[in-house]
Please model this.
Amino acid sequence: MAQETWRTPDREAIVRMREVLGDRRWLVLGGAGVSTDSGIPDYRGPGAPVRTPMTYQQFVSGPDAQQRYWARAHLGWSRMGGAEPNATHHRLVELEADGLLSGLITQNVDGLHRRAGHQNLVELHGRVDRVVCLDCGDRTSRSRVQRALTRLNPDWTNQDVQVAPDGDAILEATDDFRVAGCELCGGRLKPDVVFFGENVRKDIVEQCYQLTDDAEALVVLGSSLQVMSGLRFVRRARANGVPVVIVNRGATRGDDLADVRIDAGCAETLSAWTEEAPMERTFVS
Model:
């Protein structure tokens, strides 16, 4: 499929972004739009099809739901597991190294920020490269579970499927798929991510609130802010009187909270901002 070409950010918006951010350090809240340039689709971007991911309640409802999920996830992992960090991930690592970022909260589960080398990172919705047993709590690597699933389902590896944003795949027939159990207790395995209908761990939420309260500015990159797990931090920043910049392709649920709203891609915006606003802040250790 040919890659879509997105228009460059409006120069006046970039200038306004520079004025609002000034020499403040940013807290970044990232969403699926950060990873689209790595070939991972998003849920709500312009042109994205309507998707209905499995909820946590559905997943724990019984073996049939878990079979359906793991069959699709087994195939979808081949795309997400092979994705590489893109220009946005690498630029954020550079900004962190230059002292411009106070932290990064990502709503993505793909692990690309971590692989790019980001240090002060909170993975709000977990990690798809890790698997947890719902019965004994043991955690193991996704690659280990993938190998077990491949051994159990040798004829499933070559199917051509459409991949969803969370590493799932669009697939209907899953009746003959065999699910791997926990190596320790034989229990139910689930990717170590927050499903729809599942709560983010309280300590993670508190960590994000602390980052928000300490922030000098909040920059939202590539998120429609449709789910409360991310929107609440934008609301908190606004309540604290902290400047908010939102960069996203298409409207977001937090647009009325933004000091600057840029309708463009993340990589294009960070590139334009860099050209327009070379870093001038001096940090004293």
